[in-house]
Amino acid sequence: MELQTFLKKQGVPFELHQHETAFTAQQVAQEEHVSGDVVAKSVLVRAGDRYLLCVLQASHKVDLNRLAAVLQSDQCELADEAEIARLFPDAEVGAEPPFGKMYNLETLVDEALAKCRWITFQAGTHRQAVRMRYDDYARLAQPRVANFSLHL
Q: What is the CATH number of the domain that holds 44?
Protein backbone atom coordinates (compact mmCIF):
# COMPACT_ATOMS: atom_id res chain seq x y z
CA MET A 1 0.00 0.00 0.00
CA GLU A 2 1.28 3.43 -0.87
CA LEU A 3 2.27 5.62 2.10
CA GLN A 4 -0.10 8.53 1.40
CA THR A 5 -3.03 6.13 1.10
CA PHE A 6 -2.04 4.47 4.37
CA LEU A 7 -1.78 7.80 6.22
CA LYS A 8 -5.07 9.09 4.82
CA LYS A 9 -6.88 5.88 5.83
CA GLN A 10 -5.53 6.30 9.36
CA GLY A 11 -6.85 9.86 9.49
CA VAL A 12 -3.65 11.46 10.78
CA PRO A 13 -2.57 14.94 9.74
CA PHE A 14 0.60 15.11 7.68
CA GLU A 15 2.32 17.39 5.20
CA LEU A 16 3.66 16.08 1.90
CA HIS A 17 6.58 18.06 0.50
CA GLN A 18 8.17 17.92 -2.94
CA HIS A 19 11.91 18.53 -3.16
CA GLU A 20 14.91 18.00 -5.41
CA THR A 21 16.15 14.42 -5.63
CA ALA A 22 17.77 13.39 -2.33
CA PHE A 23 19.42 9.98 -1.97
CA THR A 24 20.39 10.21 1.71
CA ALA A 25 18.55 11.27 4.82
CA GLN A 26 21.05 14.07 5.35
CA GLN A 27 20.26 15.34 1.83
CA VAL A 28 16.56 15.21 2.71
CA ALA A 29 17.35 17.37 5.75
CA GLN A 30 19.09 19.89 3.48
CA GLU A 31 16.26 19.90 0.94
CA GLU A 32 13.64 20.27 3.68
CA HIS A 33 15.69 22.93 5.53
CA VAL A 34 15.58 21.03 8.82
CA SER A 35 18.13 19.49 11.17
CA GLY A 36 19.19 15.90 10.54
CA ASP A 37 18.06 15.28 14.11
CA VAL A 38 14.40 15.47 13.04
CA VAL A 39 14.74 13.48 9.81
CA ALA A 40 13.87 9.83 10.36
CA LYS A 41 15.80 7.40 8.19
CA SER A 42 14.79 3.80 7.68
CA VAL A 43 17.45 1.09 7.77
CA LEU A 44 16.59 -2.53 7.00
CA VAL A 45 18.52 -4.95 9.20
CA ARG A 46 18.80 -8.73 9.16
CA ALA A 47 19.04 -10.37 12.60
CA GLY A 48 19.46 -14.09 12.14
CA ASP A 49 16.66 -15.18 9.82
CA ARG A 50 14.39 -12.18 10.37
CA TYR A 51 14.28 -8.63 9.05
CA LEU A 52 13.56 -5.53 11.12
CA LEU A 53 13.09 -1.91 10.15
CA CYS A 54 15.25 0.38 12.27
CA VAL A 55 14.27 4.05 12.30
CA LEU A 56 16.72 6.63 13.56
CA GLN A 57 17.84 10.21 13.15
CA ALA A 58 19.62 11.10 9.90
CA SER A 59 22.48 12.39 12.03
CA HIS A 60 23.02 8.92 13.53
CA LYS A 61 24.03 5.45 12.35
CA VAL A 62 22.98 2.02 13.52
CA ASP A 63 25.40 0.49 16.00
CA LEU A 64 25.05 -3.15 14.92
CA ASN A 65 26.65 -4.51 18.10
CA ARG A 66 24.32 -2.50 20.32
CA LEU A 67 21.35 -3.54 18.16
CA ALA A 68 22.33 -7.20 18.42
CA ALA A 69 22.37 -6.85 22.21
CA VAL A 70 18.94 -5.16 22.20
CA LEU A 71 17.54 -7.94 20.00
CA GLN A 72 19.39 -10.67 21.87
CA SER A 73 20.73 -11.85 18.52
CA ASP A 74 24.15 -13.30 17.76
CA GLN A 75 24.60 -11.01 14.78
CA CYS A 76 22.93 -8.12 12.97
CA GLU A 77 23.75 -7.04 9.44
CA LEU A 78 22.53 -4.33 7.13
CA ALA A 79 20.33 -5.72 4.37
CA ASP A 80 21.54 -5.31 0.80
CA GLU A 81 19.73 -3.44 -1.98
CA ALA A 82 18.22 -6.63 -3.45
CA GLU A 83 16.66 -7.51 -0.09
CA ILE A 84 15.35 -3.96 0.32
CA ALA A 85 13.81 -3.96 -3.17
CA ARG A 86 12.13 -7.32 -2.48
CA LEU A 87 10.66 -6.28 0.87
CA PHE A 88 9.63 -2.74 -0.17
CA PRO A 89 8.26 -3.27 -3.70
CA ASP A 90 6.35 0.03 -3.80
CA ALA A 91 9.27 2.23 -2.64
CA GLU A 92 12.44 3.38 -4.31
CA VAL A 93 15.49 1.69 -2.78
CA GLY A 94 16.84 4.04 -0.13
CA ALA A 95 13.54 5.89 0.32
CA GLU A 96 11.64 3.33 2.39
CA PRO A 97 8.98 4.84 4.65
CA PRO A 98 9.48 4.19 8.38
CA PHE A 99 6.39 2.01 8.79
CA GLY A 100 7.52 -1.61 9.04
CA LYS A 101 3.94 -2.60 9.79
CA MET A 102 3.01 -1.78 6.17
CA TYR A 103 5.49 -4.46 5.09
CA ASN A 104 4.95 -7.03 7.86
CA LEU A 105 8.17 -6.02 9.59
CA GLU A 106 8.81 -5.16 13.22
CA THR A 107 9.81 -1.51 13.64
CA LEU A 108 12.43 -0.34 16.11
CA VAL A 109 12.83 3.38 16.77
CA ASP A 110 15.95 4.77 18.34
CA GLU A 111 15.22 6.51 21.64
CA ALA A 112 16.83 9.76 20.45
CA LEU A 113 14.31 10.04 17.59
CA ALA A 114 11.44 9.20 19.95
CA LYS A 115 12.13 12.48 21.79
CA CYS A 116 11.30 14.59 18.72
CA ARG A 117 8.01 16.48 18.53
CA TRP A 118 7.88 16.40 14.70
CA ILE A 119 9.67 14.14 12.24
CA THR A 120 10.29 14.27 8.51
CA PHE A 121 10.93 11.18 6.39
CA GLN A 122 11.07 10.02 2.80
CA ALA A 123 7.70 9.07 1.38
CA GLY A 124 8.81 6.12 -0.73
CA THR A 125 10.55 8.27 -3.34
CA HIS A 126 13.71 10.34 -3.44
CA ARG A 127 11.65 13.46 -4.28
CA GLN A 128 8.96 13.51 -1.58
CA ALA A 129 9.02 13.84 2.17
CA VAL A 130 6.36 13.64 4.83
CA ARG A 131 6.31 15.76 7.96
CA MET A 132 4.15 14.65 10.87
CA ARG A 133 3.98 14.65 14.66
CA TYR A 134 6.11 11.92 16.21
CA ASP A 135 3.22 10.94 18.50
CA ASP A 136 1.01 10.23 15.46
CA TYR A 137 3.83 8.30 13.82
CA ALA A 138 4.36 6.20 16.97
CA ARG A 139 0.65 5.47 17.26
CA LEU A 140 0.55 4.16 13.67
CA ALA A 141 3.94 2.42 13.53
CA GLN A 142 3.71 0.92 17.04
CA PRO A 143 7.50 0.70 17.24
CA ARG A 144 9.66 -0.78 19.92
CA VAL A 145 11.86 2.02 21.29
CA ALA A 146 15.47 1.18 22.11
CA ASN A 147 18.96 2.68 22.18
CA PHE A 148 20.80 1.35 19.11
CA SER A 149 22.45 4.31 17.36
CA LEU A 150 25.61 6.39 17.41
CA HIS A 151 25.89 10.05 16.40
CA LEU A 152 27.82 10.51 13.15
A: 3.90.960.10
